[in-house]
Amino acid sequence: LHMGKTMKEDLTVVAKYINKLYPPEFNVFSIYAELYHNYFASQAKKNAESHLEDKDIYLLLSWVHNFYPKEMRKDHALAMELDKVKLGSLLPSSLSKELENKYLDSEEVAVKNSLSRCLDKEIQRWKEDKEPEKLNGHFQSELLGIFVIQSIYSSQKRAEDISKAVGEELSHRLLKELPAFLRSYRDAFEDFKEKSKKHRHYKPILIANINNCWNFR
């Protein structure tokens, strides 16, 4: 953040005031921009090649695909000058792709584990002597129906905020995870229906799960 702010503010000063003090053939703005970019890119590469936590990978990719090219370089005071310089990306494409794959792998596992924990909690609720919650007057599982959908949606949204391509790839992966989760859910529910007919709230629990199906569709 400090580097980005410094680069943006300094290049704005160069564009507004320093550039016009030199003859055009000196390419003063281009020289400043390239030097700042090269330093920023070297730091980004150094970070990318070190051990990064998942949240750091997400942040670095956000800089590479989003903050740097869209917010910094498209700033109204800099865009026209920077378009002439052709600075390129903060990271080599191979290293960027490697980080994207790490992010996608970790996010896929995180969502899968989250859905699994959610189903375990739901199964535990069925075993309790407790009537399901009502939403808008109907029995429904807020935990299962709403939490699962929100988990997948928020994960997709975070990926799309990095780039459209990363978002599409994660969506493709999660479209495989959701059917697997739904099969586990169906199997657990069938098991409950078969073995828990004497449960005091058997019928409301059945209704709640049937109502969940509409949300999942």
TrEMBL record:
One Pfam family here: Sec6
Source taxon at top rank: Eukaryota
Gene Ontology CC: exocyst
Any one Gene Ontology BP term: exocytosis
Gene Ontology molecular function terms on file: SNARE binding
InterPro entries referenced in this protein's UniProt entry, alphabetically: EXOC3/Sec6
PANTHER family in the record: EXOCYST COMPLEX COMPONENT SEC6-RELATED (PTHR21292), TUMOR NECROSIS FACTOR ALPHA-INDUCED PROTEIN 2 (PTHR21292:SF4)
Annotated protein name in UniProt: TNAP2 protein
Upper lineage: Eukaryota, Metazoa, Chordata, Craniata, Vertebrata
